[in-house]
């Protein structure tokens, strides 16, 4: 079963020793050994100020990750610029489409007017020409006499 954790009371705390961290300084008598060719570092010993000897591996300090160079222009600025270019491309395309539709409408209108002029001219020639009745039958209704559904002139 779990035992309750005992916390020292105030009068017990005075008997506790306070240890401060002391940086480890390599002993002048035991220099750090270079890393062996196998990849395992050599064992080194350090003599502490109070005379104790600490033995362990010599570890090279950790190298920080290289800082990646920031681009000259921020990504937000690039995105805004690309959005602006895209917007201008769409506006230009819509302008060209509008111009094309306007031109096509004008062309169709001119073709309709041309057809009306040509057809109207042909009709005018047919109506106002006197020599256009060759081979046709001309009936003078005022002089005609109608007998049994036949015209007699």
Question: Quick one: how many beta strands?
Answer: 4
Q: How are the strands ordered across the major sheet?
A: 1-2
Q: What is the typical, i.e. mean, pLDDT?
A: 75
Output the helix-strand order.
Answer: HEEHEE
What does the oligomeric state look like here? single chain
Shape: rod-shaped
Count of helices? 2
- Low-pLDDT regions: none
Describe the structure in brief.
The chain has 153 residues and is α+β, with helices and mostly antiparallel strands. 38% of the residues lie in helices and 10% in strands. The protein has two helices and four strands; from the N terminus they run αββαββ.
Question: How is this structure best described in words?
Answer:
The protein has 153 residues and is of the alpha+beta class. 38% of the residues lie in helices and 10% in strands. The chain has 2 helices and 4 strands; from the N terminus they run H-E-E-H-E-E. The protein has helices spanning 10-13, 75-128, and strands at residues 43-47, 53-57, 145-147, 150-152. The strands form 2 sheets. The protein has a two-stranded antiparallel ribbon with strand order 1-2. It is rod-shaped.
């Amino acid at each position: 079963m779990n035992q309750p954790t005992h916390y020292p009371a105030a009068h017990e705390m005075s008997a506790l020793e306070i240890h401060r961290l002391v940086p480890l300084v390599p002993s002048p008598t035991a220099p750090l050994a270079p890393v062996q060719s196998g990849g395992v570092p050599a064992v080194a010993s350090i003599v502490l100020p109070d005379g104790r000897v600490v033995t362990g591996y010599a570890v090279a300090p950790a190298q920080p990750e290289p800082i990646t160079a920031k681009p000259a222009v921020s990504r937000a600025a690039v995105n805004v610029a690309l959005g602006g270019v895209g917007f201008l491309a769409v506006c230009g395309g819509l302008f060209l489409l509008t111009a094309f539709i306007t031109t096509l409408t004008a062309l169709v209108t001119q073709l309709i007017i041309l057809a009306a002029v040509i057809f109207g001219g042909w009709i005018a020639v047919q109506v106002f020409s006197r020599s256009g009745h060759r081979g046709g039958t001309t009936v003078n209704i005022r002089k005609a006499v109608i007998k049994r559904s036949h015209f007699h002139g």
